[in-house]
Design a protein that fits this description.
The complex is a heterodimer of chains A (288) and B (504). Chain A is of the alpha/beta class and 288 residues long. Chain A has helices at residues 2-22, 66-77, 97-100, 153-164, 181-193, 242-246, and strands at 28-31, 34-37, 41-45, 48-49, 62-63, 85-89, 145-148, 170-175, 197-202, 215-222, 230-238, 250-256, 261-264, 276-278, 284-286. In chain A, strand 8, helix 5 and strand 9 (197-202) form a beta-alpha-beta unit. Chain A is globular, with a radius of gyration of 21 Å. Mean pLDDT of chain A is 71; it is low at 17-24, 52-59, 104-138 and 268-288. By secondary structure, chain B is an alpha+beta fold. Helix content of chain B is 28%, strand content 30%. Chain B is built from 14 helices and 24 strands. Chain B has helices spanning 27-32, 40-46, 58-71, 101-114, 127-136, 155-159, 171-179, 185-190, 196-200, 202-212, 241-261, 294-306, 343-357, 396-400, and strands at residues 10-16, 19-25, 52-55, 78-82, 86-90, 120-123, 146-149, 228-238, 264-275, 281-291, 314-322, 325-326, 362-367, 377-381, 406-413, 415-418, 425-429, 431-432, 435-436, 445-446, 449-461, 473-480, 485-491, 497-502. In chain B, strands 15, 16, 17, 20, 21, 22, 23 and 24 form an eight-stranded antiparallel sheet that branches. Chains A and B meet through helix 1, strand 4, strand 5, helix 2 and helix 3 of A and helix 13, strand 13, helix 14, strand 19 and strand 21 of B. Strand 7 of chain A pairs antiparallel with strand 13 (362-367) of chain B, so a sheet runs across the interface.
Chain lengths: 288, 504
C-alpha cells in the first residue's frame, strides 16, 4: 500500500537522523597522547599497588594512574561545543578534587593570562603566571564531576554499564580491577550505545588479563630531573590502528599543574617518538 | 502559655555569644520577676522551682504559626500570619455563618485557649485598629486572654488612649514623638497633619490613615498548599507482586497527571503500602532533577518493590510527592541533539544509580574555604540537589601551588631525616600507601632510609586558629629514587613527619 511505503520512508529518515547525531561512534577526543576514540572502552594499566602486609589497609587496595585519567578529563572539558559530564566510579580512581579545579572550558588558557596584583602594576603584554586561575569552580571540571562509590564488584560493573549507556556525552572513568573478558565485552557494547567514552583503570599486574578494550596503555614511574613528576606511558594495544602498536609508542609525560593534565616532557633526548607536544598553557615544545 | 498548677515554670532560652539568655517566659516566671533578655542563671535564681528549659527555635515557630494560620481557615479563607506571634483574619462576609462577629471572635479565643494558648483577640473595621486593640487594648480576663470589639466608626475613640507604638510605627519615629511629649495616639491625632511627614517620615501618616480607615490595607492570603497525592485501594489485600506492580504504575500515572496539570515536577516520591495487620511500608525515591515522568519513576520504584515485604497482603497504595517545583513542559525535537546533549538523560542515569546504591554513594565535590588540604573540599550527596554551594572560586593561593593528584585519607607517619628542621629532606624510610619507599636503581639506601633525589619546599600551611590545638605544617615535595613523588609534611608543634599524598 502507498501509505505503508510512505511510513517506511519516514521511519528510515528518522532512524538515520537519530543514529547520526546521538551516537558517539566516529568521534574522538584530543588528548596529549593522541586522539582517543569515543564510544569505546580504553584501559589504563598502572598506578600504585599496595602489598598490603601487616597494616590496617585492605589487602588488595590500589590506586589508579590518576595522572592519565585526569588528562582525559581535561581533554573532555576542552571541547567547547559539547557539554560533557564526568563520572568517577570506584574509590581507587578518585583524584584529589583540587587537581580537577584547574581544567575549565577554555582548556587552561586562563592559566597564562596576566593578573593584576594589588602591589605594582603589570606591564601591558607581560604574563605573570599564577597557576590555576579558573573561571569559577562550577563551570569547570569539578562542577561537572560526579563521584560514585559502589560497595562491591557486581554493583561496580552495573554502575559502569549504566553510565556508559547514557545518552548525554559522559566520560566514565572507572575502577576496572578484576574485570574478565566477558565483562569488558559487555562494557564495549554499552559504550557503543551511549554518547560518551569509557576509560578503565586497572592495576599493572593485570597486564596478562584478556580484555575487549580498544586501546591499552601502561603507565610506569620514571625519575624526573625537573620539578615535575614524570611517567612513561606505553601504548600496548590499539585495535583501531594495529600498525601503530608495532612501533611500541612510548611517551614520557610530566604532570602539568597549571592545567591539571599532563604534557610531554620537554627535555627528553632521543628515543621518544613524539616530536611535537602542546602543553596546556598554549606553548608548543619541540623535542630534538 | 500558662502551665497548670503543679507544673514547672517554662523558659525559652537562646544562646547568645556563649551565654544563655532568656527569650520568653511563662506567666508564672513573669510574675516571679523573670524578663526577656536576662541571663539564664539570674532567671533560675529568681524562680523557686527548677524551670523547664526549651531551646529557642525561630524557624520552627514560624512553621507552627503558619500551621495555626491554616487551621484558622475554618473561620475565613483569608488568613495570614502577622509577625511572629499573631494572626490576621479577614472575616468580612463570614460572620453571619457563626452568629455574628462577637460570637465568632469568642469562639476563636475559646478554641485557641483549648490548645493551651492565651489569645488576645480584637475585631475592628481596619487592620490597624484591630492590631492595636488586640495588643494594647488594656486588661482583659484574669488569665491574660481578652476579646475586644471596636465598633465600626469608633476607631478614633478606641485608639486615642492607646500608646503610639500601637500604630506599628518604626522605633525611631516612636522615640522622636516621645521626645516632644506625644505618647498617646490621641495626642498624635491632635497634631497638625502637614507637620508630621517632615519630622517623622511619611510612614506615620500612612499608619494613621490605615488605622482610621482612610487608607486601604488588604490582608495577604496565606499561600494555598496543594498536596499531590494519588492512591488506590486493593480490597481484601493481595500478595501478588504483579498485581501490586500494576496498581503502583496506575498510581504513579495518576500522580504524574496531577503534576502535569500544574506544570510541576517532584524531587521526592514517597510510595506507602498499607498492609493488612502490619505497619505500612514506605518506599522513598529521590531524583536529582524535578521530574513527572511516570515511566522513569516506575523504573526507580520497581527494584524496591521486588524487595518489599508484603506481609499478609497489601491493601492500599498511596503515592505522595514532595519537593514539588515548577517544571515547564519542553517540546521535544526530532533533530539530533548535538551540542547540548541531553541533561535529562544524565540526571535519569544518576537517579538510577543513586537509588540502587543509596544516596550516600553518589556524590559531588564541594569546595570549602579552608587552607588545610584535607578540609578544602568535601563530597556531598548529589541526589538532593545540593550541588556546589560551597565557595564558588578557588582561593588564589591554593590555585597557584602544586598539589598532589591523590590525597591519603589519613596522613601516614614516616621516618624522615632532614638537613635542618626547615631544610631539605635527605632520606625517607617506611611504607607509604602500601609500598615501601624505593631506592630505585641509582638511589642509595642505608639503615636510616633511602636517599631522596629531589626535595622541594617548605611550603607552610598554617593551622586554623579557631580550631584548638592545630599547629602549622611545613610541606615538602619529595622524589625518591624510583621516581615516586610524595607530599610530606612536618608538624611544627611536634616535629613529627607524615606523608599526606602522592602524585599517582
Amino acid at each position: 500500500m502507498a501509505v505503508s511505503s510512505v511510513i517506511a520512508g519516514l521511519r528510515d529518515a528518522l532512524s538515520m537522523g537519530r543514529a547520526g547525531g546521538e551516537r558517539a561512534v566516529g568521534r574522538s577526543l584530543e588528548t596529549t597522547l593522541g586522539p582517543l576514540r569515543c564510544g569505546v572502552v580504553h584501559e589504563v594499566l598502572g598506578g600504585i599497588e599496595g602489598e598490603g602486609a601487616g597494616r590496617k589497609r585492605v589487602p588488595d587496595e590500589w590506586s589508579a594512574a590518576v595522572c592519565v585519567l585526569c588528562e582525559v578529563a581535561r581533554a573532555v572539558m576542552a571541547e567547547p561545543d559539547r557539554a560533557w559530564q564526568v563520572v568517577w566510579i570506584g574509590r581507587a580512581c578518585w583524584p584529589a578534587p583540587v587537581c580537577l579545579a584547574g581544567a575549565c572550558a577554555d582548556g587552561g588558557e586562563s592559566a597564562a593570562r596576566a593578573e593584576q596584583w594589588p602591589l605594582g602594576k603589570a606591564k601591558a603584554g607581560s604574563v605573570r603566571s599564577v597557576g590555576k586561575r579558573v573561571r569559577g569552580v562550577r563551570e569547570g571540571l569539578l562542577g561537572a564531576s560526579v563521584w560514585v562509590d559502589p560497595p562491591d564488584e557486581a554493583s561496580r560493573l552495573w554502575c559502569i554499564d549504566v553510565a556508559c549507556r547514557c545518552e548525554h556525552p559522559t566520560l566514565v572513568i572507572a575502577d576496572g580491577r578484576g574485570l574478565k573478558l566477558a565483562q569488558t565485552r559487555r562494557l564495549q557494547l554499552a559504550a557503543g550505545v551511549g554518547a560518551g567514552v569509557c576509560v578503565l583503570g586497572r592495576p599493572g599486574r593485570e597486564k596478562g588479563e584478556l580484555s575487549a578494550a580498544t586501546t591499552r596503555w601502561a603507565v610506569s614511574r620514571t625519575v624526573s630531573s625537573t620539578e615535575r613528576p614524570r611517567w612513561n606511558v606505553t601504548l600496548l594495544r590499539n585495535k583501531d590502528q594495529p600498525a601503530l602498536t608495532e612501533r611500541q609508542r612510548v611517551w614520557t609525560v610530566e604532570w602539568d599543574d597549571a592545567t591539571g593534565g599532563i604534557g610531554v616532557a620537554a627535555d627528553v633526548g632521543g628515543g621518544a617518538s613524539a616530536s611535537v607536544s602542546a602543553s596546556g598553557a598554549g606553548r608548543l615544545v619541540g623535542v630534538a | 502559655m500558662t502551665p497548670g498548677a503543679g507544673l514547672a515554670p517554662v523558659l525559652v532560652v537562646r544562646t547568645v555569644a556563649s551565654r544563655q539568655v532568656v527569650s520568653a517566659a511563662c506567666e508564672a516566671s513573669l510574675r516571679a520577676g523573670v524578663r526577656a533578655g536576662q541571663v539564664l542563671a539570674d532567671a533560675r535564681a529568681l524562680l523557686k522551682s527548677e524551670p523547664m528549659i526549651v531551646e529557642d527555635d525561630p524557624a520552627e515557630d514560624v512553621r507552627r504559626l503558619r500551621a495555626l494560620a491554616r487551621w484558622a481557615m475554618r473561620w475565613s479563607p483569608v488568613v495570614s500570619a502577622d509577625g511572629l506571634d499573631g494572626l490576621l483574619v479577614d472575616i468580612s462576609g463570614c460572620e453571619h455563618l457563626f452568629g455574628g462577629e462577637l460570637r465568632l471572635v469568642n469562639q476563636m479565643a475559646e478554641r485557641l485557649g483549648r490548645l493551651g494558648l492565651t489569645p488576645r483577640a480584637a475585631v475592628a473595621s481596619t487592620v490597624g485598629a484591630a492590631w492595636a486593640a488586640a495588643r494594647f487594648g488594656g486588661a482583659g480576663r484574669g488569665d491574660g486572654a481578652s476579646v475586644r470589639r471596636v465598633a465600626p466608626g469608633q476607631e478614633r475613640a478606641a485608639l486615642s488612649p492607646l500608646p503610639v507604638r500601637a500604630l506599628r510605627l518604626a522605633p525611631a519615629a516612636v522615640e522622636g514623638l516621645a521626645e516632644v511629649g506625644v505618647e498617646r495616639v490621641g495626642q498624635l491625632l491632635a497634631l497638625p497633619r502637614s507637620a508630621l511627614p517632615a519630622r517623622y517620615g511619611v510612614e506615620v501618616l500612612r499608619r494613621l490613615d490605615q488605622a482610621l480607615g482612610a487608607a486601604d490595607e488588604p490582608v495577604d492570603r496565606l499561600g494555598e498548599q496543594v498536596r499531590y497525592e494519588a492512591s488506590v485501594d486493593l480490597p481484601g489485600g493481595t500478595t501478588n507482586l504483579e498485581a501490586v506492580g500494576l496498581a503502583t504504575r496506575a498510581v504513579l500515572g495518576d500522580l504524574a497527571r496531577q503534576l502535569a496539570g500544574r506544570e510541576s515536577g517532584l524531587r521526592r516520591l514517597d510510595v506507602v503500602y498499607t498492609r493488612l495487620d502490619s505497619a505500612a511500608e514506605s518506599v522513598l525515591v529521590q531524583v536529582s532533577r524535578a521530574t513527572r515522568d511516570a515511566g522513569h519513576l516506575w523504573k526507580l520504584v520497581r527494584p524496591r518493590l521486588e524487595r518489599l515485604n508484603m506481609g499478609f497482603g497489601v491493601e492500599g497504595i498511596t503515592a505522595r510527592a514532595s519537593g514539588v517545583g515548577v517544571m515547564v513542559q519542553r517540546q521535544g525535537s526530532m533533530s539530533p541533539r548535538e551540542a547540548t546533549g541531553d541533561p535529562a538523560a544524565f540526571s535519569a542515569m544518576l537517579d538510577t544509580i543513586g537509588n540502587r546504591l543509596g544516596p550516600g554513594r553518589v556524590l559531588r565535590a564541594q569546595w570549602l574555604a579552608s587552607h588545610r588540604p584535607e578540609r578544602a573540599s568535601r563530597l556531598v550527596p548529589a541526589l538532593n540537589g545540593a550541588g556546589l554551594e560551597g565557595a564558588a572560586e578557588l582561593p588564589a593561593c591554593a590555585a597557584a601551588l602544586p598539589r598532589p593528584s591523590r590525597l591519603f585519607d589519613r596522613p601516614e607517619p614516616v621516618r624522615v631525616v632532614a638537613l635542618s628542621p626547615d631544610g631539605p629532606v635527605i632520606s625517607v624510610s617506611g611504607r607509604v600507601a602500601g609500598e615501601m619507599v624505593n631506592g630505585g636503581l641509582g638511589g642509595g639506601s642505608n639503615e636510616r632510609g633511602v636517599a631522596i633525589v629531589t626535595s622541594i619546599g617548605p611550603e607552610r600551611i598554617g593551622g586554623e586558629w579557631w580550631r584548638a590545638r592545630e599547629g602549622s605544617r611545613d610541606y615538602f615535595r619529595v622524589q625518591d629514587g624510583g621516581g615516586r613523588w610524595l607530599w610530606l609534611y612536618r608538624e611544627s608543634a611536634t616535629g613529627a613527619w607524615f606523608a599526606h599524598g602522592e602524585w599517582a
